[in-house]
Amino acid sequence: MNIPEWTKPAVYGAGAGAIALAIIGFTWGGWVTGGTAEKMADKASVDAIVSVMTPYCVAQSKTAPNSMEVLAALKGASAYERRGIIEKAGWATPLGSEKPNSALAISCNTAITTS
Which keywords does this chain's UniProt record carry (predicted)? Predict the structure, then answer.
């Protein structure tokens, strides 16, 4: 079988173009792998839960029977200890969940201390 003379440069050009396209796409084009997209989706879902549940947590801080004690403990605690205090109080536990959400506790702490 006779292969035309232009085939070899065309194949090299197509290969180099594909490599260049991949480099440009992943570097500047916003392309991501499936694993990265999954991590981004997980982070977005956690962020959405936190933004929706933060008002509930703040409301708990005002209406819970032990709110005065917990708020006093928060004022005397360091920034590192506050998340644990909010988690122990149960304010950062979403409805239907058994364990607290640490991102919600951090957001709740920020909302409580700034209000």
Answer: Membrane, Transmembrane, Transmembrane helix
Do 64 and 89 touch, CB atoms closer than 8 A?
yes
CB 107 within 8 A of CB 95: no
Q: pTM for the whole thing?
A: 0.69
Q: 91: closest CA among 53, 44, 47, 46?
A: 53
pLDDT digits (tens, 9 = 90+) for 42-85: 999 989 989 999 999 999 889 999 899 999 999 989 888 999 99
Domain assignment present for 97: yes
12 and 55 co-located in one domain = no
Residues 31, 34, 36, 41: is their CA dihedral positive or negative?
positive
C-alpha 66/C-alpha 11 separation (Å) is 73
Got the DSSP string for 21-76? HHHHHHHTS----HHHHHHHHHHHHHHHHHHHHHHHHHHHHHHSTTHHHHHHHHHH
86 within 8 A of 92, measured Cβ to Cβ: yes
